[in-house]
Amino acid sequence: MSEAETRTLIERYVAAFNSGDRDAMLACLSEDVAHDINQGGREIGKEKFRWFLGMMDGHYREELSDVAIMVNQGGGRAAAEFTVRGTYLATAEGLPEANGQTYSLPAGIFFEIDDGLISRVTTYYNLADWTAQVAKD
């Protein structure tokens, strides 16, 4: 896959995230996508990713802004750095109580690309920063 094609794929993924189009996000992924959850484990497969998105949508409403996409030579890997702006909708297990708090924090996703689809999604953000922001409200 060319660098330009990889950039377009990542742009499509981010746009789908921001529009709430989970099916369009999933269409960017390989069936056996590896999903490395921030400060968590690794899940394999598009159906587990679908479940994760549903769980996230129940707890958070988020948008990615200030997105910078970087693609390596050859297009096999990419990264997106951005600001997550969100609202904490419902309390997630082990986290502070939700009451509509808003937050804004830097984050990033690393991607691997195989056969024209995203085969790995690794997300990083500072959970302590997020927790401090929602605990204040």
Automatic annotation (TrEMBL):
<dbReference type="InterPro" id="IPR037401">
    <property type="entry name" value="SnoaL-like"/>
</dbReference>
<feature type="domain" description="SnoaL-like">
    <location>
        <begin position="10"/>
        <end position="120"/>
    </location>
</feature>
<keyword id="KW-0413">Isomerase</keyword>
<dbReference type="Pfam" id="PF12680">
    <property type="entry name" value="SnoaL_2"/>
</dbReference>
<dbReference type="GO" id="GO:0016853">
    <property type="term" value="F:isomerase activity"/>
</dbReference>
<dbReference type="InterPro" id="IPR032710">
    <property type="entry name" value="NTF2-like_dom_sf"/>
</dbReference>
<dbReference type="InterPro" id="IPR011721">
    <property type="entry name" value="CHP02096"/>
</dbReference>
<protein>
    <submittedName>
        <fullName>Ketosteroid isomerase-related protein</fullName>
    </submittedName>
</protein>
